[in-house]
């Protein structure tokens, strides 16, 4: 089973999916393709996007619609109901729906729905069905972690996970 996981095979039999968290922290960039997806390229692209976002938030370059530095990060959770509730509350304070783009980011793979919600696609961070559950701190789902600890420390976390992956392989 372990070898199959490292090869990106579909070992989640109930959902017919790969279980490939290791691809999120594979610093050797030798991940297999999964369903014709170039895992290394896609993961590295998202990590680059996360790094830029974290840098802009931490430095204060990313400001809210008021021009003030973002100081608090909230993870809404998985359901659209929670996101809609947060959006409704935000709009009751901010008024203009265009302000959503300055305060909301999306962790999603559904670009049309993200745009419909009011979030610009450049503020969308992708993840894949082989991440499993959407609770993986190693993926964009864990975006609040590098915002809090800094991206360099997040990369150290990924490297530590990769070290353990190699140890268990």
Architecture overview:
With 169 residues, the chain is mainly alpha-helical. It is globular. The model has no long low-confidence stretch (mean pLDDT 91). A two-stranded parallel sheet has the order 1-2. The chain contains seven helices and two strands, in the order H-H-H-H-E-H-E-H-H. It has one domain: Rossmann fold (3-Layer(aba) Sandwich). The chain starts with a helix and ends with a helix. Keywords: Gluconeogenesis, Glycolysis, Isomerase. It comes from Strongyloides papillosus. One of its GO terms (cellular component) is cytosol. This is Glucose-6-phosphate isomerase. InterPro entries: G6P_Isomerase, Phosphoglucose_isomerase_CS, SIS_dom_sf.
Keywords:
169 residues; mainly alpha; Rossmann fold; two-stranded parallel ribbon; 7 helices; 2 strands; SIS_dom_sf; Glucose-6-phosphate isomerase; glucose-6-phosphate isomerase activity
């Amino acid at each position: 089973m372990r070898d199959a996981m490292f090869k990106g095979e579909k070992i989640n039999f109930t959902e017919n999916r790969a279980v490939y968290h290791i691809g999120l922290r594979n610093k050797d960039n030798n991940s297999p393709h999964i369903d014709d997806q170039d895992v290394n390229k896609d993961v590295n692209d998202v990590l680059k996007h996360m790094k830029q976002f974290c840098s802009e938030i931490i430095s204060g370059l990313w400001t809210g619609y008021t021009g003030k530095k973002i100081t608090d990060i909230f993870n809404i959770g998985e359901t659209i109901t929670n996101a809609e509730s947060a959006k409704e509350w935000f709009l009751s304070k901010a008024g203009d729906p265009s302000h959503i783009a300055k305060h909301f980011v999306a962790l999603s793979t559904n670009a049309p729905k993200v745009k419909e919600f009011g979030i610009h696609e450049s503020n969308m961070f992708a993840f894949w069905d082989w991440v499993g559950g959407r609770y993986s701190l190693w993926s964009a789902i864990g975006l609040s972690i590098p915002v809090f600890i800094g991206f360099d420390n997040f990369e150290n976390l990924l490297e530590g996970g990769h070290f353990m992956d190699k140890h268990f392989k």
